[in-house]
Amino acid sequence: MKTVKFGVIGCGLMGREFASAAARWCHLAEIDVRPEIVAVCDSNPSVSAWFSENLTTVRQITSDYRELLNNLEVEAVYIAVPHNLHAEIYCAAITAGKHLMGEKPFGIDLDANRKINAALAANPEIFVRCSSESPFFPAVQRIGQMLEAEAFGQIIEAETGFLHSSDLNTEKPINWKRMIEFNGEYGVMGDLGIHACHLGFRAGWRPANVRAILANIVKQRPDGRGGMAECATWDNATLLCETSDNSTNDSFPWTIRTHRIAPGQKNNWYIEILGTKASARWSSVNPDILHVMHVDGGEQLWGEIQTGYESAYKTITGGIFQFGFTDSIQQMWAAFLYELRHGQAINRFAGCVTPAEAALSHELFTAALQSQQESSVVKVRQSE
Predict the structure, then answer these.
(1) Which strand ranges, in their side-by-side order, compose the sheet holding 99-102?
(2) Contact status, residue 259 vs residue 161, Cβ threshold 8 Å
(3) Which of the residues 73, 168, 266, 359 has an alpha carbon 20 to 30 A from that of 122?
(4) 104 and 193 in contact (C-beta within 8 Å)?
(5) What CATH topology corresponds to 2-130?
(6) Is CATH 3.30.360.10 correct for 134-319+354-378?
(7) Interacting residues of 288 by C-beta distance below 8 A, sequence separation 6+
(8) Whole-number Å distance between alpha carbons of 106 and 96
(9) Which residues, 6 or more positions from 334, have their beta carbon under 8 angstroms from its beta carbon?
(10) Cα dihedral 327→328→330→336 (10° resolution)
(11) What is the pLDDT of residue 224?
(12) Maximum distance among all alpha carbons in the chain?
C-alpha cells in the first residue's frame, strides 16, 4: 500500500470532509494507495485545531501556506480557499512540486485560471485535478456507462444543474461567496457551475455558444454588525448552450442551471438526457433512483432502477445498501489517488475534473457574463 502524505490548506467544511474520508480509508477495497494528512494550514487557529484533535497523523499546524509548501514531507495538497486566492496558492503549490487537488472554479476568473494552467504547463510532472463529487453516485455512473455505450442514440436535448436554497432566507448574513472581490463576477457559476458541467464535459460535450440569464435576486444582506452590505454576485444562472457531441458531431441544446435561491430545493444535483434510442434522468433528492426509458417503437414507458451501492471504486459495503454524499466524497478522493498512482482513472466517468475541463468552464462562464450584459448569444471559446 503506497501512502501519499497530504497537506490541507483551508481547514473548513470540505477540508474536514477530506479528513473524514481519509480516516475511514479501510472502507475501500482493492485500492493500493491511501492518503495521510500530515500538515494543515488555516488563518483561524480554532479551525485547524480540529485536525490535530481528530487526526494523530498531523505533525505541522501553521497559518502560513508557504511554511506548509516548504515541508518536504508533504507530497500533495488539498487547497480549499476563497476563489480570489486560487491563482496565488495553486501556482505556489505547483511550483513547489506538490500534487494538487483544488476546489472549483480553479481561479476567480479566466485570467487567474490561465495563470494556474501556465504553472502546470511549466511543471508537467505535477498531477492536478479539481474537486467535484456528483459523478461518483452510482446512478450517475450508470448514465456514464450509457454514454460510453452510445445507448442514447442521437442526443436530442440535455439538462444538468445544481439547485439549492441556501440563500432563500433574505436575513442570512452575507459571507465571502456573496462578495465579488472574493467570489468573483461569476457568482453562483463559480461556486456551483463545475458540478453541473462535469458529466457533460467528460462525455465530450462542447458548448459552441451560450445565451445566459443571470439573476441577482437579493441585492443586500445583513453584514453581521447591525448594518446592511451590498450583495452583488449572481444568485441564479440559467445557461442555454448549443452543444456539439464530439463522438458524433451532432448538435443539441444543453441547459445548465446553477441556483442558490431555488424554492423547494435543499441540495439537488440533477441530470436529464433525452435521446432517440433511450433517455435517462436522475436527481440527488432520490439518489438511488435512476429513471430510464428505452425507445423500441412501442409505448414510451419510464422505468425505475434502484441502483443501491454500486461504487466505481470497490468498498466493503454490500450492494443492497444506500449510497450517500460522504460516500461520493470518498470515491472522489479514491479517484484522485488512483489516477495519481496509476496514470488513469478506473473508468472514463470515474475521474476528477481535469485542468482542461476547468478551463472550458471558465470559457463558458466568461461567455455567459458577456451574454447577460449584451442580452445576446455569445460564442464560447474552445480552450486548447
Answers:
(1) 60-62, 33-41, 2-9, 76-79, 99-102, 128-130
(2) yes
(3) 73
(4) yes
(5) Rossmann fold (3.40.50)
(6) yes
(7) 138, 139, 306, 307, 308, 322, 323
(8) 18
(9) 28, 31, 312, 313
(10) 160
(11) 87
(12) 66
DSSP element (H, E) containing 192:
helix 188-203
pLDDT tens by residue, 44-91: 998 998 998 999 999 999 999 999 999 999 999 999 999 999 999 999
Question: d(Cα 83, Cα 93) in Å, to the nearest integer?
Answer: 15
Going from the C-alpha of 174 to that of each of 43, 91, 178, 223, 273, the distances in angstroms are 20, 29, 6, 6, 36
As given in the structure block, the three cell numbers for residue 301 are 414507458
Structural domain boundaries of the chain?
2-130, 134-319+354-378
Contact 6, 74 (CB under 8 A): yes
Please tell me what DSSP assigns to residue 381: P
- Residue pair 118/94 in contact (Cβ under 8 Å)? The answer is no
3-state secondary structure of 325: helix
As a whole-number percent, the residues of the chain with pLDDT over 90 amount to 93
Complete DSSP assignment for 57-102: T--EEES-HHHHHT-TT--EEEE---GGGHHHHHHHHHHTT-EEEE
Q: Do domains 2-130 and 134-319+354-378 have the same CATH topology?
A: no
b/e map 277-296, b = 16+ CB within 10 Å: ebbbbbbbeebbebbbbeee
Mean pLDDT along residues 28-40? 97
Section 146-157 average pLDDT: 96
Q: Give the residue carrying C-alpha cell 433512483.
A: 289
At 185-196, the pLDDT tens digits run: 999 999 999 999
What's the DSSP call for residue 173? P
**DSSP-assigned beta bridge partners for residue 269:** 162
- Under 8 Å between Cβ of 365 and 183: no
SS3 of the chain: helix, strand, coil, percent, to 5: 35, 30, 40
